[in-house]
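We emphasize that the prediction below concerns an isolated chain of 291 residues; any contacts that depend on oligomerization or on bound cofactors are therefore not represented. The input was used exactly as deposited, without trimming of termini.
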Amino acid sequence: MNKNLNMDCIRSFVSIVEQGNFAKAATHVGRTAAAISLQMERLQGQLGIQLFQKDGRNRVVTPSGQEFFEHARAILAQNDAAIRLADPRDLTGAIRLGIVQDFADDFFPKALSSFSEVFKNIRINVIVERSENLLEMLENSALDQVIAFRHTTDAKATLLRESEMIWLGKADTTIADITPLQLVLMDGPCQFRKAALKSLGDAGVAWDVKLASASMSCVTAAAEAGLGVAVRTADVLESKKLNVSRITNLPPLPSINLQLYTRGEDHSPAIEKLSEYWVAQMGRPGPIAQL
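Result of the prediction step, given as a token string:
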């Protein structure tokens, strides 16, 4: 006769092994240490094997327990995957999301509107900042997810798309022919600023920073006004419909990766669902503005 193992007991057992002891596991699963002990007695009775043995004042996993641990993790993974197939309207939760300025004004509200139509009970709190600032907040557990340009970090990174850096200037002007080249750039540190100055330096093009700002809106407005040439991604040009055009008679620029960053720990179903959404939407070819 087949037996049905208790999923709560299995989850507590896996937590004990991963956390290292009963007390930490109890905190992790939101139960008391006494409740965890009762669960393990129940699980051992169901399995008919000894999962733990005494080692001084501590309890350690037996060889049979170690063998069962691999099965237990697989059972949990399948269980959690099945749960995620449930009606998305049943998902609830709050997500703290950080996103770079490039996508905050135009693309992002449209994307969130589309997401919210399906996941009506998930609340998203948004912070718009520079990539390095957002990643610092993620590492300090102040954010759950970050959409940012590639930086060195210990956070888990998923590539969303490789974006082309381009020169942008006011449409129908010859500002790119002015010497020295007038630039409107973000304040440093900034990967776009660094790439622009390196490209011009390697090509021997004289330049002068006409305007520098921490605000991307200010930089793009300056480019639209004809104050100088800016550097952003082709995604920005396509999504914002700015009164600027791509300038092609300047030295080439590198591409830059847009990444989805998360902390390397268990995530709520709401966070996982939003991660899947970003990968599906932003990772596909073509302008992001078509969302």
